Amino acid sequence: MAQLSDDCFAFGGKLLAVEQAAALIAERVPSPDGSEPVALRAALGRVLAEDLRAPVALPPFFNSAVDGYAFRHADLAPQGETRLRLAGRLQAGAAAAPIAPGTAIRIFTGAPMPDGADTVMMQEDAQEEGGAVILPPGLKRGANCRPAGEDVALGEVALAEGRRLGPAEIGLAAALGCASLNVRRRVRVGVFSTGDELAEPGAQLGGAKTYDSNRFTLMALLAGLPAEAVDLGILPDDRDATARALREAAAAHDLLLTSGGVSTGEADHVKAAIEAGGRLVFWRLAVKPGRPAAMGVIRPEGGSADAGTPVVGLPGNPVAAVVTFLHLARPLVLRLAGATAETLPRFAAEAAFAYRKKAGRREYVRVSLAFGEGLPVARKYPREGAGLLTSLTESDAFAELPEEVTQVAPGDRVRVLPFRAVF
Ligand code: AMP
Ligand code: MG
Q1: Is 277 found in the same domain as 389?
Q2: Is residue 341 part of a domain?
Q3: What residues are in contact with ligand 1 under a 6 Å CB criterion?
Q4: pLDDT at position 10
Q5: Same structural domain for residues 75 and 190?
Q6: Tally of structural domains, the chain
Q7: Is the domain of 328 the same as that of 193?
Q8: Does one domain contain both 219 and 330?
Q9: Residues 6+ apart with CB under 8 A from 133
Q10: Which of 2, 111, 140, 263 is the most exposed place for a label (fewest CB within 10 A)?
Q11: More confident residue, 317 or 303
Q12: Of the residues 289, 305, 336, which one is the last residue of a structural domain?
């Protein structure tokens, strides 16, 4: 497993700004080495381990972009119609013969341009008449054709190392003829829940128990990343048991995630367990919801004393767990996966709500978005609890209120983070 040096996060602050946490991750967490080949069909979501240089040009040859008539532009009269004899017909996939001056050929989209031809008139603009085609004036040389390499030149870097492979990237790799790609190993992420009150979905719900939802949310979030989520179950509210479980899991995982038990309550043991099993890097973020989040490095059992596995202690409240996952766990996974850093998507919206907040921390307010003319309108979810799971299922985005802002009035412009685009 990838191990971090013990001082890679050295930081002495108290309440860490979200941007500082992001900078820590970007600066201190090393990118991985090594690669494995993966068939293109199985490459979705993986991270390219090396630049993909185009082994062929794209398109590979000069071809027609439309159904129409190919000819030499020099044969087109600058004013008035031109009549050219039709000397052949060429469909996609057929080999082209050169065309003689003063002639045209019927051509279809994707067919190679015959030698000599340099322009195509769309069939809608031309008229066929007795073995000839009549072309109006005014078309530019090179119109309606696609030169070889106009998309990607031979040998050009089509996709850079670190690129996450989505549908567009996989399509491009296929178009370049690649049946397999060298990608990074998936990041192995162990996911724990913590809390004596938690029950496994499917089990009987006894008194004072509640079903564990965070582990399922977090594993589902990881499924959208170049990660392999490993379900490590529920830990009791016990410092030693938590420290032991973290140390045992550290050797076999690249990253550990916990949720709950990281606040200041007497039953909150994650911070102390991180300190016991390794080193705390920071605790408490200047963010709402999500303030108690912690990050550290766990020394694996039997591992060297100065290397460790990163651990992120996410808060227990489900909305806080999601907010801090997006800001801590997600960039950490991308970094450990060797992926190029990705900022979360955000756009401007108009607030349809009033809100007051404290300066000095960033707040994420759940909103639904209405799209019409002008800016999208952000309506606040009517209730605020960080434990309300329906506030996520019934919202589209977080309005991201910056540290310095203290109030929002209806009509104000706010930045929104459309979490559904990230999930
Ligand atoms: P804690 O920080 O452990 O006190 O947790 C804060 C709140 O989140 C409590 O109401 C917990 O019951 C709840 N919580 C903690 N972990 C989970 C979980 N895995 N799934 C659902 N709720 C949780
Ligand atoms: Mg708890």
Answers
A1: no
A2: no
A3: 193, 195, 197-198, 210, 212-215, 259-261, 263, 265, 315-318, 387
A4: 47
A5: no
A6: 4
A7: yes
A8: yes
A9: 69, 83, 84, 86, 104, 106, 121, 126, 127
A10: 140
A11: 317
A12: 336
Does residue 342 sit within a domain? no
Output the CA 195–ligand 1 centroid distance in Å. Answer: 7
User: Average pLDDT for residues 142-153, to the nearest whole number?
Assistant: 98
pLDDT above 80: residue 171 = yes
- State which of 146, 165, 197 marks the end of a domain: 146
Give the residue, out of 258, 259, 263, with the most ligand 1 atoms within 8 A of its beta carbon, to mutate for a pocket test. Answer: 259
210 and 154, same structural domain?
no
For residue 12, pLDDT beyond 50 = no
Expressed in angstroms and rounded, the spacing between residue 402 Cα and the centre of ligand 2 is: 28
What is the structure's pLDDT at 6?
55
> What domain range includes position 228?
4-32+186-336
> What pTM was estimated for this model as a whole?
0.93
